Structure formats: C-alpha cells, structure tokens
Amino acid sequence: MRTFSRIYLSIFQFLFFFFFMQNPLQGQLALQNSIDSLRKNFSLKEDTSLILFYLELGELYEPEFPDSGLHYYKEALNLAESISTEKEVSDERSLMILKAKAFRYIGNVYNDMGIYDQAIENYLASLELHQITGDKKGMAYCFNNIGNIHADQGNFEKAEEYYLKAIPVYTELGDQTGLAAAYNNMGAIEYDQERYESAIVYFQKTLEMVQQIGHKQGIANTYNNLGETCHKLGQNQKALEYYRLTLDATRDLGDKFGLALAYSNLARLHVTLAEAANSGSDHPTQKKHIEESVNYGNLALSTAQEIGSHRMIAEASAILRQAFNASGKYRQALEHAERYIETNELIFSEEKTRALTEMQEKYESLEKEKQIDKLVYDNEIAENKIKQKKNQLVFIALGLALVLLVLIFLYSRYRLKQKINTILKNKNDELQVLNATKDKFVSILAHDLKNPFSAFCNITSSLHRNFDQIDRSEQQYYIEELSRSSEYMNSMLKNMLEWATIQMKPAFPANEICIIHSAVQELISTLGAFARSREIMLTNQVPESYRAKANRGALSTILNNLVTNAIKFSPPGNEVIIRATSLSKKVKIDVIDSGIGMTPAEIEKLFRIEVDTRSIGRSEGKGTGLGLIICKELVEKMGGEIGAESSPGKGTTFTVLLKAPD
C-alpha cells in the first residue's frame, strides 16, 4: 500500500552506486576523483570545513560501503562535539546544524542496516538540534523517518504520532512533496489497521497534493490506493472508477508493472461484482462481470509475463482460476490453478534466502523486545546483550566489506587480464599480416621479379653480342620474349607501387558520384590494343544511367586489374563482358570471361596476401595475385565488397558491389 518511498536517497548517491557496481575499476577511479575534488574545494585547515569534508566523504562511501560512510559520519560528529567542548565557537548555530546533519546521516545508515534502536536514537538527537536551531525541514525529515521505522515494525500508534507531527511542519513550509508523502503514509497505516474510512480521507489529501505538483507516478499510485480501500469497504462502483483512472494513468506513464497491477485489481473487482449478483451463472449481470474479469485477468497475465514478474503472474492466474471456476469452466480454471502453483513454487525457490533472512530479522526483533522487558529487572544484563549484538553486527559488516573488497579486486584483475589478452591477440593478428606482407614481397623480389629480370638481361646480352649471327626469325622470337617480359615486369611493378601507396596513405579520398558506363568505356579504349593483340573482344553492357558512390581513380584501377586478368586468362577468339545490375541501395558490377576457370579451392586462395597464388590456373599470364589484393583493399576502403565465381573450363565472373547514390 505505501507507494511513496520511506527513505529518500539522493540522485548523486544512486548514480554513483549504479556506476560503481557496473564497472568496479572505473568506480574506484570515480570515487578517488571525487575525494580529490572534495579536498580541493574545502579548506581543511578550518575545523568546520573538515566536518563538512567528513560528511561529504561519508556520502560518497555510504552507497557501496555503509560501514565506511558510518565511520566518516561519526568522525564528523566527534569533531563537531570536540569543537563545542574544547573551543569557544563564534557561530554555535552553524555547528549545531552540522551536528544535526551528522546525527541524521548516522540514523540513515543504521536504518538501512536494520539496527532500528540506534537509528531512532540518532534521529531523536538530530530532531532535538533541529528544534533548537529552528530548522523546520530537518524536523519534518526526522518526524517522517521515525514514523517510517515504527510503521515498519507494526507500531502504528507511534508511527501515526510522528506522521501527524510532520504534517503541520510540511504545511508551514509549503512543501507539497513532503506533505503528500506524510498523508500517503498516514493513509497506509490506517489501511493496515483496517480503518478504511480514515485511510480514504488521507489518500484523497494525498491525491490533491500530487495533482497540484503534477507527480504522475504519485497520481497513479494514489488512484490505486483509493481503489483498493473502496474495494475493502464494499464501495465497488467507486473502486471500479478509481481502478479505471489508475489504468489510464499507468498507460500514460508506460508503467508496465503498474498496468499489470491495475488489470489484476479490475479483474478481482469484477469477480466480486459477479459473486454479488448471486443469480446463477446464466444471469446477464453476473455473466458480464465474469467476462470482464477474464478479459482483465488475461491482460494482467500477458503484461506480467512481458515484464517477467512472477508475483503478478501468480496473482493473475489466481484471479483467472476464480473467474473460470465461477463460470463453470473447470478445465480452464484447472490450467490457471496449475500455473498459480508452479509460479508460487518458482517464487519460493527464488526468494528462499530472502525469506530466511526475514525470519531471522523477525526473530531478532522478538529477542530485542524480550531484552527491553528484562531491562525493568536487570539493566546491566540487558546492556551486555545489546553490546554483544552490536559487536556481531559490526563483525558481519566488516566481513561483508572484506568479501566485497576481495571480489572487486578479483574482478578488476580478471578485467585487466581480459584486456591484455585482447590487446595481445590484436597485436598477433597484426604481426601475422605484417609477416605475410613481408613474405609476399620477398617472394615477389626473389622469384617473380628476379626470374623475368634475369631472362630479360640474358636475352638483351645475347642480342647485343650475337645480333649479326642471329637470323631474322630468331631475332623476332627474342624481341617477342623481351616484350612479354617487360610487359609482365611493368604490370608487376605498377601493382607493387599501387599497393605500397595504399599502405602508406591510410586516409582515402572521399567518394564521388561516378558514371559506371563512362568509366568502363574509357577502360575499353585504354585496353583495346592489348585485347586485340590477344584476339579478345571487350563488351560494355553497363546501362548509361547507372551510377555508384566511389573514388573515380580507385574504380578505374579496380576495373583495369579485373579486365586485364580476364583478357590474359581467356583463349583467343573469346569475349570479355562488363555489365552492371542495380540492387537495393547498391550497384553490382560483373567482369565475365570465358577463360580456363578455377576450382573452389583455387577461389579460396584469391584476395589473400598470405597465400601463394602462382599455383592457380594454367595460363601463361598468371602472376602474383597482388593485383586482386589491391582491388580488395580499394573496394573495402570505398565501403564495398568483391568476390568471384568460377568453374574449371567455364570461365570466371568477378563481382564488385558498391554503394548506390542516395
């Protein structure tokens, strides 16, 4: 029922806690940076600045290390008390305000730890100082928190006493948020005591406050509280109205949990209305309410399943079982009963540890009550037991803190190791590529350049020494060999220079809009003589309207390499076709030949610098494969893709995919 949080945690603390738990290493740095920032902002030579520093430091530590936060709060309090007793203080009121704040912060920590007697003791000390200094807001804060502790322990009379003290203070301050929380808490304890008429009065006051401040979540929660209270009073039509308002409010908020709760409440109310009709399952009114209950129950179940709330799934299943049972549909009722049982078993399994903890807390609470009774007869024994209990709690807190620190250390080491492993892997991959590049260049220099140069030198030397003794047919043969050799070396040197240029200039020129047909036509003009010498016909089948986002120079280099290879590997009398196809946001360019083709295993070796491609094919024009590697790097720098399809004896198709203009 209590839809307002009893203990308010600052947004800074919440964000710090979330950040620390998600990333311990960065969280530790954030904590250290925050502490360094505090030291810069405070003049620690002054006693009051040191008190403020301890309080701020405690706020930083408290979300993750409550015992450390408590330590610094106590340091602040001890320093404030020592100043007030040992020195003459010029501003006693300011010092009392700091002491009140320290007491209140200490009370918050004890409240979170479940040490309620210590929490109340510190809240009362803070309240006394706030009353002396006239700090109304601090007084209201203490009244509300003391009331919350009594309410949590079921001491409703005491809780009501303190809530009623907080209300006039919030009213005087004009603090509508605090007033709404106080009214809501009053309504909640009235509801818990089954004083529903009084609860409605307070919830209506809460509604007035949250509507004035525009607190949408508070409005939705208060509508729900009013609906549940009216339902308890048997005011079913009013309950129905409030539940519908809750449904509208939670829809606007997008609050799935609140939506599932609203659906469940509406389904339960319609079951009540159906039972109230009491005229048999065929009675129209009863039948209508049962249908409404099933409808809302199914909505509650689907929403609960969407958010993964086992409690809401169990709630919706129980209501649906009741609705189907009332309508005589026992099979459906049995299905929902089985889901209800299964979900409850799951909830029990998930919350077993929590239940055991709650039982332990209840046991400790009973033990404390017995100790309080014994104080009347034997005060000394009771004090010893309380001290022993405190020591146990401190030991547990220290143990938990130590375990947490160990876990943080282990996790940080694990993250560091993972990061180092990733860096090493990346470096190894880079080293493999560099080694492959080195091997490729060594291979080219040692074999692919050395042999043609040697042959070139031998032929030119022979021609120079024996030109007059060599007949014309042999001269023609040697000249043709020189031409082929120089052509091969020129192509290889050109590819090596282009590849080296790409490696040395990682920054790639911006893409432009290229007309593919024009680029292909220029290439055909450039390679026309070479193609005719091989008796190969070049055909441009690219539509004139096709365009691509590419660097014009890079596109020309790619097409030149692919078409040159197609000419080299095609037998005389064949045709090399360049065509293009428009795809979704891309353009596909195909270079098709009718040459010797390749096997799948040979295709796998293409575009890879670490693979020796000299074994691919049987044509005399085969080379190092560096041209295709250049094509691949240029295509990828333009955001495209390159690939090949081939079959032995059936030719090869090289495909380039480039982005189409927007």
Can you walk through the features of this model?
By secondary structure, the protein is an alpha+beta fold. Among the domains are: 10-134, Serine Threonine Protein Phosphatase 5, Tetratricopeptide repeat; 255-351, Tetratricopeptide repeat domain (Serine Threonine Protein Phosphatase 5, Tetratricopeptide repeat, Alpha Horseshoe), CATH 1.25.40.10; 430-507, Helix Hairpins; 508-659, 2-Layer Sandwich (Heat Shock Protein 90). It is built from 23 helices and 7 strands. The strands form 2 sheets. The protein has a 5-stranded mixed beta sheet with strand order 2-4-5-7-6. The chain has a two-stranded antiparallel ribbon with strand order 1-3. The protein is elongated and about 135 Å long. It starts with 10 loop residues before the first helix and ends with a strand. The model is unreliable at 1-29 (pLDDT under 50).
In short:
The protein is α+β, with helices and mostly antiparallel strands and 662 residues long.
SSE map:
Layout: H1 11-22, H2 24-41, H3 47-61, H4 66-86, H5 92-113, H6 116-133, H7 136-152, H8 156-173, H9 176-192, H10 196-213, H11 216-233, H12 236-253, H13 256-277, H14 284-307, H15 310-326, H16 330-350, H17 352-375, H18 379-466, H19 472-504, E1 512-515, H20 516-533, E2 537-541, E3 547-550, H21 552-568, E4 575-583, E5 586-592, H22 600-604, H23 626-637, E6 641-646, E7 652-659
Helix pairs in contact: 1-2, 2-3, 3-4, 3-5, 4-5, 5-6, 6-7, 7-8, 7-9, 8-9, 9-10, 10-11, 11-12, 11-13, 12-13, 13-14, 13-15, 14-15, 15-16, 16-17, 17-18, 18-19, 19-23, 20-21, 21-23
